[in-house]
C-alpha cells in the first residue's frame, strides 16, 4: 500500500501471517497504523529509516513484534518474517522442543513446565523470536531490560545461566542448552 490509511484498511480486512510496516508513510504514519493494528493478533515488523533508540522503543512499546532499520538485507527481513510465522494464532511460540505461551506466560520443554521469572521469560522469548540469530548483550539489555540499564552489567549472563539451569534436566540428548553463547558476540537460540 502506498499510504497509511489504505494500509490500515487492508490490514484490518485481510488475514495475514505477518505485516511489514514502514514507519514513514504518507497520510497516516506507521506508528499510528501500528497503534490501531494492536486490536488484531497479526505480528508486525516495523521498517524504519529512523534508527534512533527512542523511535525503536516507541514502536516496540506500541506493540511491534520486531523492527528492522533501513538499509537492510532482504535475507534478514525474510528470516525475521519466518521467525514470526513460527508462532501460532494463540500467541504460542515454539522452536524445537521449547514452547512459550505468550498469553499465559508459561514455558515448557518436552511438555514439562519451566518456572521462569518474567525477565527470564522475556529474554527467552526475545531469543526464540529470531532463533539462530546472534544478539549482542547490548541488544538483549536494550530489549529485555530497557534502554536506561547499565551496559557494563553482567545481568544478561546471569539471567542466561539461570534459564540454562532451569532447563538443564529437560535439554536435548547431547546435554546442550538451547541458548548458545557465541564467543565475542553474544547469545543465540539454537534452531
Describe what you observe in this structure.
By secondary structure, the protein is α/β, with parallel strands linked by helices. It has two domains: 1-85, Rossmann fold; 89-191, Arc Repressor Mutant, subunit A, CATH 1.10.10. It has seven helices and nine strands. The strands form three sheets. A four-stranded antiparallel sheet has the order 4-5-6-7, covered by helices on one side. Strands 1-2-3 form a three-stranded parallel sheet, sandwiched between helices. The protein is globular and about 50 Å long. It starts with a helix and ends with a strand.
Task: Let me know the CATH homologous superfamily of the largest domain.
Answer: Winged helix-like DNA-binding domain superfamily/Winged helix DNA-binding domain
Mean pLDDT: 83
Tell me the domain tally. Answer: 2
DSSP, total strands: 9
Rg (C-alpha, Å): 17 Å
Strand percent estimate = 15-25%
Annotated CATH architecture of the largest domain: Orthogonal Bundle
Helix content: 25-40%
Main sheet properties? 4 strands, antiparallel
Please give the structural blueprint:
Elements: H1 4-13, E1 19-22, H2 30-37, E2 44-48, H3 53-61, E3 66-69, H4 74-85, E4 92-95, E5 98-101, E6 106-109, E7 112-114, H5 118-129, H6 137-145, H7 155-167, E8 179-182, E9 186-189
Helix pairs in contact: 1-2, 5-6, 5-7
